[in-house]
Prior knowledge:
The complex is a heterotrimer.
Chain A: H1 2-26, E1 34-35, E2 50-55, E3 64-70, H2 72-75, H3 81-93, E4 97-98, E5 147-148, H4 155-171, E6 175-178, H5 188-197, E7 204-208, H6 215-222, E8 227-231, H7 237-242, E9 245-249, H8 250-264, H9 269-272
Parallel strand pairs in A: 1-3, 2-6, 6-9, 7-8, 7-9
Antiparallel strand pairs in A: 2-3, 4-5
Chain B: H1 2-8, H2 10-15, H3 35-40, E1 63-67, H4 72-78, E2 109-111, E3 121-126, E4 131-136, E5 139-141, H5 143-158, E6 164-167, E7 172-176, H6 180-190
Antiparallel strand pairs in B: 2-5, 3-4, 4-7, 6-7
Chain C: H1 6-15, H2 53-57, H3 72-75, E1 93-95, H4 96-104, H5 116-121, E2 137-139, E3 151-154, E4 156-157, H6 159-167, E5 171-174, H7 179-186, H8 188-194, H9 206-213, H10 224-238, H11 251-254, E6 272-274, E7 279-283, H12 286-293
Parallel strand pairs in C: 1-2, 2-4, 3-5
Antiparallel strand pairs in C: 6-7
Helix pairs in contact in C: 6-10, 7-8
Amino acid sequence: MTSILIKALKSIYISVPSQNAKFATSAICSNTLSITNKEWKYPPTFTKPREVWIENLDTIEEKKLGLFELHPTVYGATPRIDIIHRNVIWQRKYRWVSWAHTKTRAEVRGGGRKPWPQKGLGKARHGSIRSPLFRGGGVIHGPRAGNTHFFMLPFHLRLYGLTSTLSAKLAQDDLHVVKDLDIPSDNSEYLAELILSRNWGPSVLIVDDTDYAPRNITVATGNLPHVNLMPVYGLNVYSMLKHDTLILTQSAAEKIEDRILQLLHSDTRKQQAKFKLDQV
Amino acid sequence: MATVWRSQSAFARIFAGKSGLILNNTADLGAKLNPASISTLKKHYSNYAHSPFVRKIQEQYEFEIIKNPPEWEYVQRLLPFESIPKITPKAAYPSGWIPQKEEASNLPYFIERNKNQDLSIYLDISYRGMRKISKIKKIEGDIWLMNDDVKDFLKKRYKRYIETRVHELGKFIEVKGDYVNALNEWAYSKGF
Amino acid sequence: MGSRQITEKALTMLRSLPRVSLGNIRDNPGYKKNPKRGRGQHGGDKHGAGNKGSGQRQNYMRLGYETGNNPFYLRMPHEHYYKGHHLRRQYPPFSLHELQLIIDKDRLDISKPIDIASIVKSGMYNFTPDEKHFGINLTDVGADCFAAKINIEVQWASEQVIAAIEKMGGVITTAYYDPHSLYLLRDPKKFFESGQSIPRRMIPPPDAIEYYTSAKSRGYLADPEEISKDRLRLAQKYGYELHVLEDDPNYEMLCERKDPRQIFYGLEPGWVINLKDQCILKPKDSELQRFFAS
């Protein structure tokens, strides 16, 4: 019974916003579109730049404020799922210290005395009741605490992880560019309704180029655990995949693009060198 | 003498018999440190942690500070490039290397240059030099058409069939055998 | 799907697939190799490494070592040129072709005098002073195609190289730098950020004095008169017409040289470079001035 209900609810949830989305796309206000021709620092050679709408956050229904070009090297790269996967594994592992711990035969309490004489009893010879052969004895080659799993992914894999994820997100319509983060009220219901009506999936990651977000959006996202704010310098593969939709402000999208392109077109021997713990 | 010191400080006890070895410290050992004596007398402390903070350092040497000096141009010359410099077109390139041409992007396929502006054509030697494979990387566009063109070119040049392998998702073509120079020539002729 | 663009095709395919998320990504098959070997047909064997010793422990002895024998390379007592080979100065090679290549790629500004700092800055050459590398050995590979008029300072050059550069109207100097100066030249920014004053360049060690004072190798300590005589001699030997430096429009650039005590062009020993405030600190104290001038 409950499963039928859930299914019915799901179908409603899926069908309603899609109608809304259709409505929104048909109602483009064509007069105020701002189409900017970009001055490329590293012009795309063969592949065409990818075009995105600049959207708004100040009304619940979607308005298209302009058309914006993104560099294909960053937002239209080959979506290498394997590189994305290695980035996720790296992000999970570099901060993981495993505290699983077992005691060796020396550390288990007791077992100092020879349990029975060496000879004459017809039993197997033993020197300690905490030998690994005994129940309650020590463990051989068991996990020892404080085992770090830290490693560093090669520099360019980290870079291509970002471009692959951004490209995959954009290709699947999960990346939206907004003009700014100004919303009319600090009510989190407004934001929830906006996300629902635009079919942005429940969880949303909003990325701005500064680490000072406007007050309204900070308060509104405070109550929503699945809507998160992040500055550009915090952008990473794991968070992008964890959230269904990625919202970039226009300046953030530009900043990400500039930074990645700059790194792809400069001498990175220092970044590529073997990681040393004291290098930072 | 030694007994007196031993009673005053534990630190002195260690060096009681060896005062000759630590000449600078001998005067300090028994005396208590008071701030007044620090500022007036020049002392050498054996231990960094126990020495007091230096309050005012008089600069030993005087430097003339010149802002926006004319020599700054020489300093800028030494600083590393922010990004790899762009290539300005020249009449001739004596080294044999040719930059990518504009018309290359009009073809249905394309080979991207790497950030050092070199062609991404490499030779892969394995099995102790027994297997040589030339690899064209960073291909964009119609890779199958490019494969046909490359095969045609090599066949005309070497008058025999040459095996190739296309990896579409990896964006590369492998040619069996060492044809790096021929492939470079072909790529340059196409403008890549 | 009609597109034959590779990336475009991949991205269009993604549109019809479920959302890429933490739950549905995986690595390429066969990416990870199991470090352990199972109990197969040869499970209990030595895995081809033999029994015990060097083979099993992967203990590769140093080149030429013959497990205690008098090694082959030391058996001939008259091969004196091996003596002290591990202590000698090394000059990692850099060819004229590579030099031409970085000029073509605009990595090197030939309107300014070139030294090891600008060549390392180009990103195409590197060396490690702690491995007894004492700078650039400019080799004659690509001497035929070399076509740039430059004022270059290297640490070692052969006669052909000198001829190839002077043929194009350029100037070459060979100069010695002690390892400490080479560290500064390799990464000047790091040194400037350290806030130390630029040290003096040391004079060459006794066995290098001859090379760096001879006009034939265009040493930086050689007599300029002798050098101009030798330029003419080399032009006659290799059969090219010697350019007259005095008539050259870039005469000033071509004649720019470092002082034998100087490490960077235009910056004197004793100065402190402040990159943040863009200012230079010059010592006023007479004692310091005397020290750095000596």
